[in-house]
């Protein structure tokens, strides 16, 4: 049969549809200010209703609240300090730093102080703080049941727990009650500091204004009394501790002083004198030792030179190192005599008496020189021994003095350490003795705080702040209303605008058909009659616009003239729209045939008020001929083939080749043939008809048909080879649709809607 989609075209359409389904979840339209205002406009009743109900409930709740009164007392914290000792304060004042102020706040809010106030004022006997007393005074008061007290919970508990119930312990119950009272009391108490000052404000809240003032004043008084009690206890402990400490210090001072005297007696000297004298002697002796070592080094060097010379050249070599006037004279005489001897030897000979006498004189002088050399060598050796002995003696004396100095210095250090310890113990003892006298004489029982102002019974309640709470309720109501509005928008499953169709389905929108309200219909009239009676109405014009869109699509694509109208699910108004479209086409002077292809639940004969004894099913089953099933709409002249007799196998009936042959024969006779097909999703008939139609129009009921179902129906149509011309939104409430941003709906209402005659 005639198909308008080539295989390539079908693949392109399927690809576009698939990519759209993947992309639609990725990209969401951006909402502008106008879109947001439009959302609020169409959900205004939900928004205003939520705001009104929540605000009203808030106002009722505020006026049902029990009023509470807050009284406050101001206390000044004294920063002055009174120390008992210098090392550590036993009874100290309060420095005015931030940490101390916070510490005092915690003291004022402590469980101990709160318990004293509760006992003193008998607060534990008041119903406001004691739930048992409240239950006794109001036995009929409503109490919200606990989850564990509900019958289902008790029943399950009885199945699980089989042992005997535990008898409550009175002591434990009383402890829990006291804890509840204390917790309630502390929840009503607050202590804050005033700016950067040393003033603390004690606030207490109660249902009774007089009780609130009494509690605030009592807390301040007990706080000061508690300070006095602590100071008295501290004073007693300080006196006891100081007495014990003074006894130990006195013993330590006596022991230290005895140790100093014992150490001095053991050294046998007066501290400082012998050590200084020994140090002075060491200095002098060290100077002598340096000089002696220098002299010894000089003599030893000279001796080594002389001995080396004598060993090399004889005894006379001594005088090469040591100078001697005597030897110099003897050497001069010896030289003169040898010169004389030489002269006489040449003249007289060696045996001459004069020569012999000269030799005797020369020998005598040489002996004297040698004797003098030996004497000088012995003297030099003796001098070296003497200088060495002096050095050794000085070194020994130096060692003895150094040992003595070390001993004296160590003794001096020990004595000074003992003396310092004795002096420190005595100073500490005297300090403690003075502080002990001050502690006994000075009155320390002065509080570190005093009351600046006392609390009076407040005249006006501090809670609830009705204006503020009502404002908060209003803000919460607005917030909840907005949440519900946007939640309702997110839960909106249907199509609202033509933009939704093009964006979500990737298919052309063929227009929006307005809803014809029952108030506009005359008696026993249908929308199909209304379109004829009111040709200038918005409904009639919308159907004509659909007809025009189909003609344009037919001309643009070159497709055939067989148009199938279907929907995803029943109840979309498809048959009514198909009948109206047929009448509009007929009124326009075109030849049109409408065939009811819904063999399961036929509707065309109903909407056009025609008999249905013989129809399409009868023709396809071979019971009648085609002229027997052709009928004509009396008002427009449009030809109609109704569904005919019911059949048990509608799919097989539609697959009958007679159907294709019938369409083939009828196509040239009409400008347009409309097939009113059953819904796509419930049955498979429509997918069979999709191959027979030139174009398919999907009818979607405005805001009703879920988007997922529409997408599924279109996917099945594409898989069946349908050429989908587009989608039409049916039964559109134009008043509401305009608030969804539908541009076409704006022309059906308001200033633009006056163009139509509804």
TrEMBL record:
Reaction equation(s) it catalyzes: L-tyrosyl-[protein] + ATP = O-phospho-L-tyrosyl-[protein] + ADP + H(+)
Chain segments annotated as transmembrane: 45-64, 468-488
Coiled coil stretches, renumbered: 246-309, 370-421
Membrane topology classification: Multi-pass membrane protein
Domain Tyrosine-protein kinase G-rich per the UniProt entry, residue ranges: 417-487
Boundaries of every Polysaccharide chain length determinant N-terminal domain copy: 32-121
Record-level GO cellular component terms: plasma membrane
EC assignment: 2.7.10.2
Origin: domain of life: Bacteria
UniProt GO MF annotations: ATP binding; non-membrane spanning protein tyrosine kinase activity
Annotated Basic and acidic residues bias: 1-24
Claim: Transmembrane helix is one of the keywords in the record: yes
Location relative to the cell: Cell inner membrane
Region: Disordered, residue numbers: 1-27
A Pfam match: AAA_31
Boundaries of every AAA domain copy: 562-699
Chief place of localization: membrane
UniProt keywords, alphabetically: ATP-binding, Cell inner membrane, Cell membrane, Coiled coil, Kinase, Membrane, Nucleotide-binding, Transferase, Transmembrane, Transmembrane helix, Tyrosine-protein kinase
Family: Belongs to the CpsD/CapB family.
PANTHER family the UniProt entry points to: FERRIC ENTEROBACTIN TRANSPORT PROTEIN FEPE, TYROSINE-PROTEIN KINASE
Protein name in UniProt: non-specific protein-tyrosine kinase
Natural source organism: Skermanella stibiiresistens SB22
């Amino acid at each position: 049969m005639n198909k308008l989609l080539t295989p390539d075209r079908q693949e392109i359409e399927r690809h576009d549809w698939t990519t759209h389904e993947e992309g639609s979840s990725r990209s969401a339209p951006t909402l502008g200010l106008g879109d947001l205002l439009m959302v609020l406009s169409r959900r205004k009743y939900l928004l205003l209703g939520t705001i009104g109900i929540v605000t009203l409930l808030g106002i009722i709740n505020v006026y049902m609240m029990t009023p509470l009164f807050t009284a406050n007392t101001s206390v000044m914290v004294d920063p002055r300090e009174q120390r008992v000792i210098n090392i550590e304060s036993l009874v100290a004042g309060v420095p005015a730093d931030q940490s101390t102020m916070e510490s005092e706040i915690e003291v004022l809010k402590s469980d101990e102080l709160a318990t004293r106030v509760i006992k003193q004022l008998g607060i534990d006997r008041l119903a406001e703080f004691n739930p048992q007393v409240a239950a006794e005074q109001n036995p009929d008061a409503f109490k919200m049941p606990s989850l564990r007290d509900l019958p289902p919970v008790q029943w399950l508990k009885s199945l699980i727990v089989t042992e005997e119930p535990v008898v409550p312990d009175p002591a434990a119950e009383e402890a829990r009650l006291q804890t509840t009272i204390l917790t309630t009391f502390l929840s009503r108490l607050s202590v804050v500091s005033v700016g950067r000052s040393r003033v603390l404000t004690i606030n207490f809240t109660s249902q009774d204004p007089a009780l609130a003032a009494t509690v605030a004043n009592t807390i301040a008084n007990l706080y000061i009394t508690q300070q006095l009690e602590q100071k008295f206890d501290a004073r007693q402990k300080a006196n006891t501790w100081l007495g014990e400490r003074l006894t130990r210090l006195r013993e330590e001072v006596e022991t230290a002083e005895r140790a100093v005297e014992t150490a001095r007696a053991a050294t046998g000297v007066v501290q400082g004198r012998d050590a200084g004298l020994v140090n002075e002697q060491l200095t002098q002796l060290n100077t002598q030792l340096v000089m002696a070592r220098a002299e010894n080094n000089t003599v030893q060097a000279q001796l080594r030179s002389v001995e080396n010379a004598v060993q090399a050249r004889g005894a006379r070599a001594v005088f090469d190192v040591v100078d001697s006037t005597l030897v110099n004279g003897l050497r001069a005489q010896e030289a003169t005599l040898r010169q004389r001897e030489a002269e006489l030897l040449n003249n007289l000979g060696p045996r001459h008496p004069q020569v012999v006498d000269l030799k005797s004189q020369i020998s005598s002088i040489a002996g004297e020189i040698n004797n003098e050399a030996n004497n000088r060598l012995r003297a030099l050796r003796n001098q070296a021994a003497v200088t060495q002995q002096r050095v050794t003696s000085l070194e020994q004396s130096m060692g003895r003095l150094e040992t003595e100095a070390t001993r004296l210095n160590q003794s001096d250090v020990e004595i000074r350490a003992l003396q310092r310890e004795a002096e420190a113990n005595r100073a500490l003892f005297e300090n403690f003795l003075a502080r002990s006298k001050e502690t006994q004489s000075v009155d320390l029982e002065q509080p570190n705080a005093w009351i600046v102002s006392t609390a009076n019974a407040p005249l006006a309640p501090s809670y609830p702040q009705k204006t503020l709470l009502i404002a908060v309720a209003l803000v919460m109501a607005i917030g909840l209303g907005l949440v519900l509005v946007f939640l309702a928008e997110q839960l909106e499953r249907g199509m609202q605008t033509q933009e939704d169709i093009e964006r979500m389905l990737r298919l052309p929108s063929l227009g929006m058909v307005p809803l014809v309200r029952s108030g506009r219909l005359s008696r026993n009239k249908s929308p199909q009659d209304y379109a004829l009676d009111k040709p200038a109405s918005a409904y009639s014009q919308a159907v004509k616009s659909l007809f025009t869109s189909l003609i344009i699509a037919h001309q643009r694509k070159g497709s055939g003239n067989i148009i199938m109208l279907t929907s995803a699910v029943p109840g979309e108004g498809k048959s009514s729209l198909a009948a109206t479209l047929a009448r509009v086409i007929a009124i326009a002077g075109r030849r049109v045939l409408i065939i009811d292809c819904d063999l399961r639940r036929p509707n065309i004969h109903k909407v056009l008020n025609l008999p249905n004894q013989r129809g399409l099913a009868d023709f396809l089953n071979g019971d009648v001929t085609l002229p027997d099933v052709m009928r004509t709409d009396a008002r427009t002249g449009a030809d109609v083939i109704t569904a005919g007799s019911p059949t048990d196998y509608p799919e097989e009936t539609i697959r009958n080749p007679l159907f294709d042959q019938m369409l083939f024969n009828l196509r040239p006779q009409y400008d347009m043939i409309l097939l009113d097909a059953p819904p796509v999703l419930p049955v498979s008939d429509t997918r069979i008809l999709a191959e027979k139609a030139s174009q398919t129009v999907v009818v979607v009921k405005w805001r009703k048909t879920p988007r997922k179902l529409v997408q599924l129906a279109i996917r099945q149509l594409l898989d069946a080879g349908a050429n989908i011309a587009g989608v039409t939104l049916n039964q559109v409430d134009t008043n509401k649709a305009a608030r969804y941003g539908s541009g076409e709906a704006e022309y059906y209402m308001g200033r633009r809607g006056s163009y139509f005659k509804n």
